[in-house]
């Protein structure tokens, strides 16, 4: 065969492939129109009024309009279509909530209807078929696991028990920053904070410092972005086999690496526990103590907690603890550096309570009211999980005259709710902690004006542990150091762009120069 023949042959092949693709697309589009036109005629003629929403395209619905920062796109769409808005994400009917009043209806008044999570490719692969807590469907398994874990992992006495770990790890960070300060070094604050949180959480969850053999933080970050990605396979399941975005392949690859790491961690833990029975109890010990128990004593269910349950829960806990606290700290330091006025008031408050001859201790935190206001303001502007974790309606329901059918996905735009000018006044975009002077937030499900931890049955169960970690790190870092931006950057020019995923970290790492400000403090 000559080269010309080869070329012609391939063009012919390419042409027929293109023709087949076009024909297939036309066939699918036609089928879709016929299907949507003729299917469910009863619903078309009934009073089942859907919430308003933007026009949809065949097959993909509104998937194409989400953009790189969906929380922002959805906020501007809600200005046009209202706080309860319909979207069609591929084949999945979706409702987006963008006001505190609407959030209260979905997360409090009708919480039980929206207490489930949708099954997704990521939860199926990475969570061992949704066997963890955060991504599992509503039902006796989730209810019992959540009750058990809340009691055993994050009770006030457990939070107190882990205080020495938080103190020791933070001391190490302060020491290294003191060194950097003595030579005027530029510090990658984002990385430093990620590392200290990783060290704290490692010791708390696994009872030891990092494993050199594998990069758990990296794997957890990859899993977090896969959980947050809009995978076409979840929205147009028949396109799933093609895996056009490669996300299903990525889930399988990351899932295998995580499984290998978790196996090593569990085996290692079992061995250490056998040798030293009086060790300080960590999360992993608590999880292993429920291995082989049944999940539902009351109803005598036969579900036994096995190794895959333990691995799925462990991954949930690592995802829930690693990124959330460090990202909140990162945004807080960024806003403080941008607002020297606020930084000064906070430093003065700490200095008045603690003096400048010793470091902050956790017991000081309850006296620091301005610190509470600073953190509330950061959580209002940067709810770290901007769309919370998706919910799914367990049955059909009518809310505010809108019909929401069973298995509708519900996205709560916590980011838009915290920036609603009708609630937070015209200076809504401004970082202004004083707006919380007469407004004490407790995040226990009574306020809906700012919901960084979600709310209701599926709300975060680690709120107190998250808050104490964030407040302690911030108080220590601003008490021990003044912070300057490098390269003569004007604070008002600091880049504040975010990246989208389940969480929203800074798009660019925060770099700053620490200047030590305490006198005569001896770190052991
Ligand atoms: C600043 C730190 C934290 C923030 C901002 C945060 C935020 C959130 C948010 C927004 C949700 C979803 C709520 C919803 O869908 O309504 C969530 C769920 C969850 N969080 Fe947190 N979280 C933090 C720390 C923690 C910690 C330290 C733990 C564990 C010790 C934890 C464990 C969980 C779990 C298990 C869920 C899933 C709950 C369920 O589906 O039943 N979180 N968190």
A few lines on this structure:
With 524 residues, this protein is α+β, with helices and mostly antiparallel strands. Helix content is 51%, strand content 7%. It contains 19 helices and 9 strands.
The helix tally amounts to 19
User: How much is the average pLDDT?
Assistant: 88
* Largest sheet, spatial ordering of strands: 1-2-7-4
Using the CA coordinates, give the radius of gyration: 25 Å
Largest sheet: 4 strands, mixed
What is the N-to-C succession of helices and strands?
HHHEEHHHHHEHHHHHHHHEEEEHHHEE
What structural class should be given to the helix and strand makeup? alpha+beta
Tell me the span between the first and last alpha carbons: 80 Å
What overall geometry do the principal axes of the alpha carbons give?
globular
- Range of helix content: 40-55%
**Uncertain segments:** 1-24, 37-45
Report the portion of residues in β strands: 5-15%
Q: Count the E strands.
A: 9
Bound molecules: protoporphyrin IX containing FE
Pfam family, one: p450
Subcellular location: Membrane
Binding site for heme: 460
Protein name: Cytochrome P450
């Amino acid at each position: 065969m000559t080269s010309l023949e080869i070329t012609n042959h391939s063009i012919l092949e390419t042409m027929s492939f293109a023709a087949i693709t076009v024909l297939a697309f036309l066939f699918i589009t036609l089928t879709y129109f016929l299907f949507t036109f003729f299917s469910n005629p009863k619903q078309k003629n009934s009073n089942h009024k859907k919430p308003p929403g933007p026009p949809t395209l065949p097959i993909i619905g509104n998937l194409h309009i989400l953009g790189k920062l969906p929380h922002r796109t959805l906020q501007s769409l809600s200005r046009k279509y209202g706080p309860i808005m319909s979207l069609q994400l591929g084949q999945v009917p979706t409702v987006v909530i963008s006001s505190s009043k609407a959030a209260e209806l979905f997360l409090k008044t009708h919480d039980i209807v929206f207490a489930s999570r949708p099954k997704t490719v990521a939860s199926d692969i990475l969570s061992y078929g949704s066997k963890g807590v955060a991504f599992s469907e509503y039902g006796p398994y989730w209810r019992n696991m959540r009750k058990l874990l809340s009691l055993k992992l994050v009770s006030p006495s457990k939070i107190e028990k882990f205080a020495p770990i938080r103190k020791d790890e933070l001391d190490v960070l302060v020491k290294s920053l003191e060194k950097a300060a003595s030579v005027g070094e530029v510090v990658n604050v984002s990385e430093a904070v990620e590392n200290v949180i990783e060290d704290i959480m490692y010791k708390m969850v696994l009872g030891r410092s990092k494993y050199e053999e594998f990069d758990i933080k990296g794997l957890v970050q990859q899993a977090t972005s896969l959980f947050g990605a809009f995978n076409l396979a979840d929205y147009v399941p028949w396109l799933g086999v093609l895996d056009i975005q490669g996300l299903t392949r990525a889930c399988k690859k990351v899932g295998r690496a995580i499984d290998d790491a978790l196996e090593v961690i569990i085996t290692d833990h079992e061995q250490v526990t056998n040798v030293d029975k009086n060790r300080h109890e960590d999360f992993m010990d608590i999880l292993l103590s429920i291995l082989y128990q049944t999940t539902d004593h009351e109803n005598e269910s036969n579900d036994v907690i096995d190794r895959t349950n333990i691995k799925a829960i462990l991954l949930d806990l690592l995802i829930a603890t690693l990124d959330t606290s460090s990202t909140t700290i990162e945004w807080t330091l960024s806003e403080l550096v941008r607002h020297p006025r606020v930084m000064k008031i906070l430093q003065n408050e700490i200095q008045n309570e603690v003096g400048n001859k010793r470091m902050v201790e956790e017991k000081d935190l309850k006296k620091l009211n301005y610190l509470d206001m600073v953190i509330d303001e950061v959580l209002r502007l940067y709810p770290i999980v901007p769309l919370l974790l998706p919910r799914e309606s367990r049955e059909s329901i009518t809310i505010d005259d809108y019909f929401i059918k069973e298995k509708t996905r519900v996205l709560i735009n916590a980011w838009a709710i915290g920036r609603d000018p009708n609630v937070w006044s015209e200076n809504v975009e401004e970082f202004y902690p004083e707006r919380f002077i007469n407004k004490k937030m407790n995040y226990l499900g009574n306020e809906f004006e700012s919901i960084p931890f979600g709310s209701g049955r599926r709300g975060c169960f680690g709120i107190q542990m998250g808050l104490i970690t964030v407040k302690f790190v911030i108080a220590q870092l601003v008490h021990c150091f003044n912070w300057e931006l490098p390269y003569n950057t004007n604070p008002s020019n600091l880049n504040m762009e975010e990246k989208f995923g389940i969480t929203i970290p800074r798009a660019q790492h925060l770099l700053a120069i620490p200047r030590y400000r305490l006198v005569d403090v001896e770190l052991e």
